[in-house]
Write a structure and sequence with these properties.
This protein is α+β, with helices and mostly antiparallel strands and 452 residues long. The chain folds into three domains: 140 residues, no CATH class; 136 residues, TATA-Binding Protein, CATH 3.30.310; 67 residues, Nuclear Transport Factor 2, Chain: A (Roll). It contains ten helices and 14 strands. The chain is globular.
Length: 452
């Protein structure tokens, strides 16, 4: 019975009582209402404290990742500088292996800061590149018993300049962190974003590829691939739980709405190590769960089958696998949208599969979200044979039609893959003019596999 009902019941049965009784009734009603208000306030305070406690735990995790990144980038910068003057085989191999390991660890630290993906994509690219290049060089030196060539040292020096830029940006932001500024700010898109302002697309990376052609491309400033009506955060939670293994579903909860270049919902477990990010229309942007040991030893073919089935189930259809690399028990598989037999490289989705458990442990759909749209694909003016005749020295050649990003535009190209002087290349020819659009040199290892 509500306080109002209590009051009405008392008046109905005791209307002939004295004013003193009525005053007492009023007091009782007032007390009951006050108690209800107090209980509501206590509940609100408990909820607020719980949210604040979660925010503080999450912030501490981000601070730890930030400082790991700051120290690690500095270590890589110093190691690259040492390699520029090193002349001995053993020292170079040891240092390159240390850089590879450090870069791999830093990618993990950076992934925990990547709620707002567009702020860290170039730094992630750098860490992947310097780590994989170091691994490639260490493998070559060990195999050949050789030392670094002047050309290789020059490439490492270029990567060292990027490391210096990132380190300076992170150090400039350190004062704000020490002054108590939150690294994470749900309302503005992440306080730490300022630390990456100088790490932008103008950085000139060596044109070597490790994780697939155009794996870091996204030329659009606004997302073209977001479709559908806005849903509630509760409906989003229902969608997010279906994307995870069953053991994580009950722990997942809504953590806030993000306002960046697009609006999205963030869902995490209490520790923050499991996360799902959806557009406010319910499309998956990213998903990440921890790597766990298992008893399986899946092949590339097995991992691709698992990833393909997963994408189909969550609504990313007509996707074609184009690249796979396996590192330390995780298969990294790139998919692109396929339309009428033409690969659309800007519409890319990346999937991680554990080779030891067979679970999908990560998905990243940023390029697809920004680039996917209905396209009128032009017809190729030139025949494939005309293109192949222009590169007689290439061996083991294969080719296919694709659309690739080119500055702020997209171009229909023949993607030609093959070997020249024992090195592997992707060469992209405009399918209408025959002009070379791009040339990518593959830094390959036994861990990488091309899916052509």
């Amino acid at each position: 019975m509500t306080p109002d009902n209590i009051y009405n019941e008392m008046v109905y049965h005791h209307h002939d009582r004295s004013r003193c009784v009525k005053r007492n009734t009023f007091v009782i009603v007032t007390v009951l209402l006050s108690v209800a208000l107090l209980l509501t306030s206590v509940g609100w305070l408990a909820t607020t404290q719980d949210n604040e406690g979660y925010r503080n735990r999450l912030e501490n995790m981000y601070l730890e990742s930030y400082h790991d990144l700051l120290d690690g980038v500095n270590d890589i910068e110093i190691s690259l500088d040492k390699l520029s003057i090193s002349t001995t085989h053993a020292y170079q191999v040891d240092t390159l292996e240390e850089i590879h390991l450090k870069a791999s660890m830093l990618v993990s630290s950076l992934s925990r800061l990547s709620v707002y993906d567009q702020t860290t994509s170039n730094t992630t690219k750098y860490l992947n590149q310097v780590g994989d290049y170091a691994y490639y060089l260490a493998t070559r030196l060990t195999r050949d018993g050789d030392t670094l060539t002047p050309s290789e040292k020059s490439s490492l020096s270029s990567l060292g300049e990027v490391s210096t830029s990132i380190g300076m940006a992170l150090r400039e932001y350190r004062d704000s962190v020490q002054a108590g500024e939150y690294l994470l700010d749900y309302s503005t898109g992440g306080g730490y974003a300022d630390a990456f302002d100088t790490v932008d697309s103008s950085i000139d990376y060596p044109t070597l590829i490790y994780d697939g052609p155009f794996s870091d491309s996204r030329q659009n400033k606004t997302p073209l691939g977001i479709v559908g009506d806005v849903i509630s955060s509760e409906d989003g939670l229902s969608i997010a739980t279906t994307l995870l293994p069953s053991r994580y579903r009950e722990e997942l909860s809504y953590r806030g709405e993000m306002h960046t270049l697009y609006d999205s919902y963030l869902y995490t477990t209490p520790t923050g190590d499991v996360s799902v990010n959806l557009t406010t229309t319910g499309q998956l942007i990213s998903m990440d769960i921890p790597y766990e040991e298992g008893s399986k030893d899946l092949s590339t073919r097995d991992c691709v089958a698992i990833a393909s089935s997963y994408l189909e189930e969550i609504g990313y259809k007509s996707m074609r696998e184009v690249w796979c690399s396996i590192y330390y028990g995780t298969a990294y598989i790139n998919y692109v949208y396929e339309s009428d037999g033409v690969l659309i490289y800007p519409d890319m989705v990346k999937v991680k599969v554990s080779t030891s458990t067979g679970e999908v442990i990560g998905v990243e759909c940023i390029s697809y979200i920004f680039s996917h749209t209905s396209r009128d694909i032009p017809r190729a003016t030139l025949d494939e044979e005309e293109i192949l005749l222009s590169i007689p020295d290439m061996q083991n050649v294969s080719s296919r039609l694709c659309i690739v990003p080119d500055d702020d535009d997209e171009v229909l190209c023949y993607e030609v893959y093959g070997e020249i002087d024992e090195y592997k290349y992707f060469i992209y020819y405009d399918a209408s003019t025959g002009m070379e659009i791009n040339i990518l040199k593959v830094i390959d290892s036994e861990d990488g596999e091309l899916l052509l």
